[in-house]
Structures are given as C-alpha cells and as structure tokens.
C-alpha cells in the first residue's frame, strides 16, 4: 500500500526501507476530483469501477489490492508488487483516516477509485508522500485476527532473556547457518500487542517478506540473528527495542509479541 517495505502496516511496524512501485497508468482525471464522483465528505469522494456484493467488511482486517497515485499521475504504491494488502482498519485510521474510510466503505468484491485530499491523510507516517492522492481500492474479503498465543501478555519462565531485555522461545529449532545484521532476510511472521490483538501478519497475504535485517526495529535485528535458517521463534520485544511508549499507532505501544519463521537469507550485494 505504501512506498515503504511490503505493506501499509509494516512501514510503521518494521522499517523505513523504500521500494519503487511498479508504475500503472493513472485514471484520466487523477489531477482533480471529477464532478460526477460521489462525495462522502469534502475532499473524500469515489467512483465505482466494478460493483461488488453491496456488503462492507465487518471483521477487524480487510484484504485488498490498492494502487495509489499522486495527482501528477505517478504511482506511489502498488499492492500487486507485494501480495495482498492486509489492513487493520482501526490502526490505519490513526495515521490515514481517509484511506481507512475508503477501505471501510468499499463493499467486498467492489473496485472503486477514491480521491483523497491531503487533510484526510493526516497525521500520516514518517516517510509519507505529501499532497492529495488517488486510490484504486479493490476489497477482496474481510478476516478475523489470528488467535494470539496463550502467553502473549506475560513472558513465560522458560523463555530466554538476553542482556538487552529481548525474550524468546524456540518453536522450531534449526542448526543451519544464521544471518548477520547486514543480510537480507526472508520471513513469515505474525505480530500481536500485549493485550492479545493481532496487528499484522504475512501469512494471509500469501507472500513472504524480504528486507535488510539492519533496517528494522532493534528487537527484530537482534532476535532474527539468533535463528538458524528454517527456525521458528517467538519473541517478546520490549518497548525500548520496538517503538517506545509513544508510537505512531497505539497498538504498537509497549511489549510486542512476534512469531517469526526465518525462511532464507542472503548477503545484501546478492539482492537482485
């Protein structure tokens, strides 16, 4: 959804490493909201491209494909590059209320073009592009969150705690080689806040995540280096190794819990 990493939430959750979006031809009226667009409120309007079910999402997460353009027709982000977007609407509403509204109001199975004024994109995130945006939103389905581990709220006694305060448990052991901080890693993961609410996961997207290990939160950089290729660990990441006590999204406050599966890794210079 964004220009950062692989998903809308991961740009906040993990890192700030940018990837160029595949360019897609913008709507002919990308520069200005057309007169025939249906206005939800000033600066937020849509046109139906392909009608859907008529039923909007009711569950916490929405799977969608979203292409975003600036008003000069440049493709800012393209979810087709990265698998399905998975959005927790209440989290997105904290940083991009206009986009959250667009996804929430687009019925399942429907495709709409949305014109979103910059005021509806605030407060934004740390590398958010400026200006108004035009979005093509295709809602695929809604989804309930993945159930949290029973020990999500408290680090279990059998967990290993490092000097930094990172705690972990080995779910699936591997004696294979381990990555360095400068390597590019490929992972699957699910993340929960300490209250047991899932905030993101790669599994429903159907595509793994690949990123430079030294471009993510400190808890990930330290923790994934402990893993052999093929291993699966559960990490309890304290706020000082994550997003602190005042993160951009409230669900990311305090201790975060991740199940991480390390699929592969390679040296940065090997990245294609």
UniProtKB/TrEMBL annotation:
This is Peptidyl-prolyl cis-trans isomerase. Its EC number is 5.2.1.8. The lineage of its organism: Bacteria, Pseudomonadati, Pseudomonadota, Gammaproteobacteria, Vibrionales. It comes from the Bacteria. Belongs to the FKBP-type PPIase family. GO terms for molecular function: peptidyl-prolyl cis-trans isomerase activity. It holds the Pfam family FKBP_C. Residues 1-20 form the signal peptide. It is an enzyme of class 5 (isomerase).
